[in-house]
Design goal:
By secondary structure, this protein is α/β, with parallel strands linked by helices. Helix 1 packs across helix 7 and helix 3 crosses helix 4. The radius of gyration is 15 Å and the shape is globular.
Length: 166
């Protein structure tokens, strides 16, 4: 596969990449990075970046954050759109990429609060964006886990099993 010491979680916004990533990092005794948090730390709120500088500038910031996060052993939660960058997809080849698939039922409640600039119209936007990106998530993934009908604990257990060397 790739460097199993760099585990990158991809999937749609709201699927639980950050929550699962923190728990996985603890279980694997690795540092944890959230690329959205890295962007915010360096450049300010994502919504403000979108409003003032545009999505293209945000995506460049995101590419830089992913590169930083995957440069040494770690568990990395990416933003939902990080895989839109061809450069980022190429950089992920040396990582173990885990796609967290979902039917979306549990995501609806996580979208409230208006912090996500691409889902201003709510769940309908989320569905459209997920459908647009699904093939790319599948393409970059080494491991796919369907999170739809299982608890976070069950997802974590399944992921740890799939990450264990055969």
């Amino acid at each position: 596969m790739s460097d199993s010491r760099v585990v990158v979680l991809v999937g749609p916004m709201g699927v639980g990449k950050t929550t699962l990533g923190k728990k996985l990092a603890t279980a694997l005794d690795l540092p944890f990075f959230d690329t959205d948090a890295l962007v915010v730390r360096s450049h300010g709120e994502i919504k403000t970046i979108f409003e003032n500088l545009g999505e293209e500038v945000f995506r460049k910031f995101e590419e830089d954050a992913v590169l930083h996060a995957i440069s040494s052993p770690a568990v990395v939660a990416t933003g939902g759109g990080a895989i839109l960058s061809q450069l980022t997809r190429q950089r992920l080849h040396h990582c173990t990429v885990v796609y967290l698939e979902t039917d979306g039922k549990h995501v609806k409640s996580r979208l409230k609060g208006g912090k996500r600039p691409l889902v201003q119209n709510g769940f309908e936007d989320w569905i459209r964006i997920y459908e647009d990106r699904k093939a790319i998530y599948e393409e970059v993934a080494d491991i796919t886990i369907d999170t739809s009908n299982q608890t976070l604990s069950a997802t974590l257990t399944e992921l740890k099993e799939k990450l264990e060397p055969k």
